Amino acid sequence: MLRSHPQTLPGENDESTPFESTQTTGQTVTNIPKKTILTDFETVEELVERVKSLVTNAVEQRTEKENFLPGIRKVLGDYPSLGKSRFRGSINEFIVSEGEEQGMASLTQEEVDKLWVDH
Question: How far apart are CA 115 and CA 24, in angstroms?
Answer without folding.
Answer: 36
